[in-house]
């Protein structure tokens, strides 16, 4: 099939590479200009550079709604559009243009976690599996019929970075497999159960701020979700910001006020956690490694030279 590809960052790069390695003909690529947004500088392999290396025409757009782009798409005469990590809405005059419509590739198990940063949100929320879904695009974001979907489990120590590497490796088989299904003539796919749908916004610095009223289990997942190269989870100690780089859920149960720097357990320093911590039934978050405002990384046992005081959400 003749394919036009819309995509950005490493997800789009992997999609384009899969298409170039397939029997399909990539006739045009549309991608975004480089961005300084903190999350868009991560996993930023260039779709434009890869297309140019293979002699594929490239258009740079923030939004796909101008007349020149419409004309170029019509000239390209695609059988299908494939999109992955396109960051703005594709209007119907774009996604309905090809003979077979538009296939969108999304790194979640739709209908759950439509929208942005699905792996991070899924890990924070304690999901036991994540994956990649290829679905036909329609008027509602990430809501079209599913052509192919692959699943990977989430382990108890996994970080968002671990899950990224596992799911990005699924892009090629999911994308090319879905195109093969479409090329075979199938037109009926799996309807999404919209009663199970959820939609998440882009993450920002505010979403990495630690709230000590969360349970230790939730905070442990937040720290793992905000793993390098993502912006780390952070808190404040004596008015100064510290980043929490590694932690675990304490074995012991600790009562008191959330945020209290309380006790050494193993290699960690336990912080009281949970809105109902006063009852003494909660595990704490044992911090093992921190980064200070001046960029120093050190074990928590070296940073917290004495117990007492509080970690807070704001200075």
Automatic annotation (TrEMBL):
Residues 1-169 form the Formyl transferase N-terminal domain. InterPro entries: Formyl_trans_C (IPR005793), Formyl_transf_N (IPR002376), Formyl_transf_N_sf (IPR036477), Formyl_transferase-like_C_sf (IPR011034). CDD domains: FMT_core. It holds the Pfam family Formyl_trans_N. SUPFAM superfamilies: FMT C-terminal domain-like, Formyltransferase. Residues 205-306 form the Formyl transferase C-terminal domain. This is Methionyl-tRNA formyltransferase. It comes from Streptomyces amritsarensis. The lineage of its organism: Bacteria, Bacillati, Actinomycetota, Actinomycetes, Kitasatosporales.
